[in-house]
Amino acid sequence: MELGIAKWEVCLRVIAILFLVSTACLVAFDTQTKVIFLTYSKKATYKDLDALKILVYVTSTAAGYNLLQLCKHTFSALPSISNFKSSYYMYIAWITFLLDQITVYLTFTANSAAFQAAIFALNGSEAFQWMKICNKFTRFCEQIGVAFLCGYIASLLMAVFSTISAYKVLRMYSSKRFMRLKGK
Amino acid sequence: MELGIAKWEVCLRVIAILFLVSTACLVAFDTQTKVIFLTYSKKATYKDLDALKILVYVTSTAAGYNLLQLCKHTFSALPSISNFKSSYYMYIAWITFLLDQITVYLTFTANSAAFQAAIFALNGSEAFQWMKICNKFTRFCEQIGVAFLCGYIASLLMAVFSTISAYKVLRMYSSKRFMRLKGK
Fold first, then answer.
1. pTM score, two decimals?
2. How far apart are the first and last CA of chain A?
3. Where is the Casparian strip membrane protein domain (chains A, B) (predicted)?
4. ipTM (interface predicted TM)
5. For A131, which DSSP code?
6. B125 — alpha (psi -120 to 50), left (phi > 0) or beta?
7. How many CB pairs below 8 A link A and B?
8. Dist CA A173 CA B114 (whole Å)
9. Could you give the CA distance from residue B144 to residue B30 in angstroms, rounded to a whole number?
């Protein structure tokens, strides 16, 4: 059954990596050039908006982190290390749990901040007299929209691992005594 | 020791409620009127920006939810209900854990989205020809800044409870068999 949960985690991490890489690529390689007036044209890229730059960095880092976790899974599958009562296991489990939590929050936040920026680009703001951008760069904006969808799916999957990581570390504690490991 | 953790949780929840209410009030009651030209004046409120409206709703709801959790603590302190092996305890613990997680993510996201909107108001965007707003409504923007700080502190505190809730529910499971409760 332990192998079952490990397999599920590896599976979910691989899918999340694919979605994270998709988000980063969809944003980073999205460009659209539009002729504004006669020979004057304007090129839209993710570099026009800090929120999109941060989204590319955060999703790439999260993908890299999850890849490292996959490597860790390969190593910890060796029988000598996978001794559940060793303190080594507890350290690694705690670090994984904390890093997983931080990664989910960062990905979720970067996605939401960029989403808010995209809402302004889509609708503008009457109160602030900010004009819409997406009516000029429609294809660019649509691609960014798909990237957000991938980013949110990845965030949800990562929220699931972070619960699995929490399960792995916290079930080692006694149900009767506070923060005492079982069998002590 | 169980009482110790319960006391800490109540303490942290009370502090988080104070920060959440502060965020909601600081944003909702923030107004500034500025004379733009002779007799024409403009009033800035949180209603000018959807992200700020959502922040007020989300932080108020999160404060209400945490207040309900405090009430639950008062009831479950009664000896008849606080039987740790009952399935009632497990249901409540799981629901609390899931709701805590959802609340943290929502608060964090609403805060970050509003923060991104505030960055635009502060710096404008050269690429999109969006003008700065905060150079006109400085005091309004400063108050919103303090609200964000409170919102982020509340989010961090709530991330701590959600870990406590996870600890409360997940340590009930066997460390050897998958998703099997201890003592079964």
1. 0.87
2. 24
3. 5-157
4. 0.84
5. P
6. beta
7. 105
8. 39
9. 8
